[in-house]
Amino acid sequence: MTAASHPDAIAVDSNDGAVLTEQLFRLLRLKTTPVAIQMFERVEAMEAVPRIRRPSAVHTTDQIIGQAARLGFTVGITAADLVGPQCGAVIGLMPQDDEWLAGKAFAGVWFATPADAAAHQRAMHCVPHGRYRAMAVSPLASGRLRPDVCLVYANPAQMILLINGLQWSGYRKLEWGAVGESACADSWGRALATGEPSLALPCFPERRYGGVPDDELLLALRPADLAKAIDGVAALSRNGLRYPIPPYEVQVDVRAGMAASYGKQ
Predict the structure, then answer these.
(1) Alpha helices, DSSP H only, in 134-203?
(2) What residues contact 128, with CB distance under 8 A and at least 6 apart?
(3) Nearest-5° Cα angle at 42, 39 to 47
(4) 172 — alpha (psi -120 to 50), left (phi > 0) or beta?
(5) Is the pTM of this model over 0.70?
(6) Beta-bridge partner residues of 66
(7) φ and ψ of 35, to 5 deg
(8) How large is the angle between the packed helices 223-238 and 17-28, nearest 10 degrees?
(9) Peptide bond into 50 cis (omega under 30)
(10) Is the dihedral of CA 93, 95, 101, 105 positive or negative?
(11) What are the helix (H) ranges across 143-222?
């Protein structure tokens, strides 16, 4: 049987959110639905999305993402729907002005000094302000959005296989950082601003307000990169490298297990 005819061989269409989602659940057994994010230059275009919900209360961006990931909602927001400039600035709906860059509200709460707080603000990846007026989020499978980036929540074992899949062909080392608080700048902020796959450790507010469980990491990436990663995960699965990863006894001779992947070399 050739690779192309293998039952696990796939060529995922990056424009088909339903297939992307189905393959992620099949290959990695995710427990949280992947999310699509689309930025809008006009509020009216966001409001024209089918079955769009508009908030009736003030939220964090984490909560808006959580409504899509945890509840299956399609939600659209403007800067007026967000609790403050920290959320809005990351997605470019509010300015990264001098007041925002000072980060005074974080001094003594998350950082020891005003200088530490300001350094944190400068370290964050943010979408440049001025182009976008609105954002919408939706389950990727719904097909209601044309995603700028996709969000995949996964535990560490699932996530490393997804990253391995992204590196299956056209290998390159992937490197990320951690700003700590406001880690949305490491995930959707960085991916929207740079177009690069962006892994993050969800921060305290993401878990407190966005409903992210203790064991989940977050990868934000463009649809084309997600399709590439899924194709890679399928290739790894054909090689017996799949989720769940069965633990090997810590005291037995490892050669039998290694031979399953590498033969007798």
Answers:
(1) 156-166, 188-194
(2) 92, 193
(3) 80
(4) beta
(5) yes
(6) none
(7) -120, 145
(8) 30
(9) no
(10) negative
(11) 156-166, 188-194, 204-208
The per-residue pLDDT for range 73-100, each reduced to its tens digit, is 999 999 999 999 999 999 999 999 999 9
Both tokens assigned to 18: 């339903």
Which amino acid, 179? V
Which of left, alpha, beta for 40 (phi over 0: left; psi -120 to 50: alpha)? Answer: beta
Give residue limits of the domains in the chain.
Answer: 17-246+253-262
Residue spans of beta strands (DSSP E) within the chain: 35-40, 75-77, 134-139, 149-154, 198-200, 217-221
3-state DSSP assignment of residue 151: strand
Number of residues in the chain: 265
pLDDT in tens, 189-211: 999 999 999 999 999 999 999 99
Query: Of 226, 205, 229, 207, which is closest to residue 216 (Cα–Cα)?
Result: 207
Strands ordered across the beta sheet of 134-139: 75-77, 134-139, 35-40, 149-154, 217-221, 198-200
